[in-house]
Amino acid sequence: xxxxxxxxxxxxxxxLLGLVNGAFYAMLxxxxxxxxxxxxVVNFAHGALYMLGAFAAWIMLDKFGINYWxxxxxxxxxxxxxxxxxxxxxxxxxxxxxxxxxxLLTFGLAxxxxxxxxxxxxxxxxxxxxxxxxxxxxNLGFMILPNYRAWVVxxxxxxxxxxxxxxxRTRLGAYLRAGTENSALVQTFGINxxxxxxxxxxxxxxxxxxxxxxxxxIIQVNPLMGSNLIIVVFAVxxxxxxxxxxxxxxxxxxxxxxxGMTRVFYPEASNIVVFVVMVLVLMVRPAGLFGKEA
Length: 294
Fold this sequence. Notes:
It is a single chain. This protein has helices at residues 8-39, 46-64, 68-89, 99-121, 147-169, 171-181, 183-187, 193-215, 227-240, 245-265, 273-284; strands spanning 2-3, 6-7, 137-139, 144-146. β3 and β4 (144-146) form a beta hairpin. The chain has a single domain (2-122, 143-284), classed as ABC transporter involved in vitamin B12 uptake, BtuC. It contains 11 helices and 4 strands. α2 packs parallel to α4. The model has no long low-confidence stretch (mean pLDDT 88). Helices cover 70% and strands 3% of the residues. It is mainly alpha-helical and 294 residues long.
């Protein structure tokens, strides 16, 4: 059986691969959208935080014997704490300035972090084993589905939708949004806005680290894994609309599928299809698909 002249097993395999890539795009763009939407910071260090999450999981296993399931919680906490330090030491001084300053600062931080890990571990990748509970694959009849990749998609969807619900549908999310729009007014109600801002950046860093831990068993853990992905993720955020959380999630998943299908029908364009889509969207709607027009 063929789909558009292509064996359906190959078609569905690429569809699955695109969905897995889209799950990572959604997770990373989610953290970027949270930080930009609530803090107004273009966080170019997001790729480095993603890499830190993967390396934290690998170091925990290699040096301390801490398995994947504990790393899934500990690595985001550690990287989130590192994000809090970054916010308190550097970013808090830039909120009233042009977003370009935040972009340049976080870009510099990303280069420093990547440089340190490249000096310590080299440019070659470190392998991280798939947890035994999720090893193997399931025969769905029409295709063989690797269990770990299915796990990645499910976790990404749950985390993305849960984050959107917290920010858009809960009182905490309302406080966060109000605090970034009029911090003086919100503080009159006894709410510690600087603390909320600090924890928001830490949460965005933790989301990037969680994506890194999920990616560790799939790709080689290396210092450049974040920089190889961050440009695509920024394109996803721009297409979805800067600061739009739901837009980033939907666009990340959709572009992963589009990229996967492009590999089937026109492989030469698979590396640029996201940017082609970005150009087309910006020509029609400069604020992005889900962004608010100024």
